Amino acid sequence: MTHEMNDLPLHERMMLGERLHQLKPEVAAKVTQIFLERHPDWLVRYGEKARKFGIEDAGFHMDFLRGAVESNSIPAFEDYCDWTAGLLKARGIASHFLVENLTQIETVLRPELSPEEQALVARI
Q1: Could you tell me the pTM of the whole model?
Q2: Helix pair 48-71, 10-38: axis angle to 10 deg
């Protein structure tokens, strides 16, 4: 049985948050590698900065995901995503790249998490 986020006890949310923190470096690197393989033009355009900032950005997404899980606040993560989309738009980067990156994070995280943790992360 999957849990709604508000059905999950605080200690379980905190444990999942810690798990996300532990997985962040590996997941951020994998997600960035996948992204750059799909979009090699980013390496041509930005050079190694594409990798550096890709890993950093994926890490930020995971930090905010962790915060949303621990604080039991899906709206906080939605606000972060809206803010990030606006920031990217101001830099001439289409919001579909953010959606793609978040989807890649979920895909890379899935095999690392229990079914209950997967359900919680997917809900966000």
Answers
A1: 0.88
A2: 160
